[in-house]
Design a protein that fits this description.
The chain has about 120 residues and is an alpha+beta fold. The protein has 3 helices and 6 strands; from the N terminus they run αβααβββββ. About 15% of the residues have low confidence.
Length: about 120
């Protein structure tokens, strides 16, 4: 009897571990992996405020939830590197790059938009 209980317990643990592994692997598939990373730029950076980030991300077609999740990272990368992209899953959704003297150039796959934002005046072109 103890041998049977041990083998049953081993099988239960094995299947539980397998089930947990499946849950972990597929938990990120619904929303995809989200990432903000730097892109090569000419060295120009911009210190954008939260209103600037919200405006350009909304204009690029990002949802409020996506702006909340990636907005801070986007702001930090632009402030330190001058250029960034946002990737969701395997697709780059948008590219942001500082263009002298006071512009952020944005290309969005979501909306197909290609625009510049003057972060001194707040004007979208």
């Amino acid at each position: 009897m103890p041998n049977t209980m041990t083998s049953v317990l081993k099988e239960l643990i094995k299947y539980s571990c397998f089930f947990l592994l499946i849950l972990v692997l597929f938990s990120g598939c619904a929303n995809g992996v989200r990432r903000v990373a730097s892109v090569p730029n000419n060295g120009d950076v911009a210190d954008l405020n939260s209103d600037d980030i919200v405006l350009i991300m909304q204009h690029a077609g990002f949802t409020d939830e996506q702006i909340l999740k990636q907005g801070t990272d986007l702001r930090n990368v632009i402030a330190m590197q001058g250029g960034a992209y946002i990737r969701i899953g395997k697709k780059v959704e948008a590219i942001f790059a500082v263009q002298p003297p006071d512009y952020i150039h944005v290309v969005s796959r979501i909306t197909g938009a290609n625009f510049t934002y003057n972060f001194k005046t707040g004007e979208l072109k």
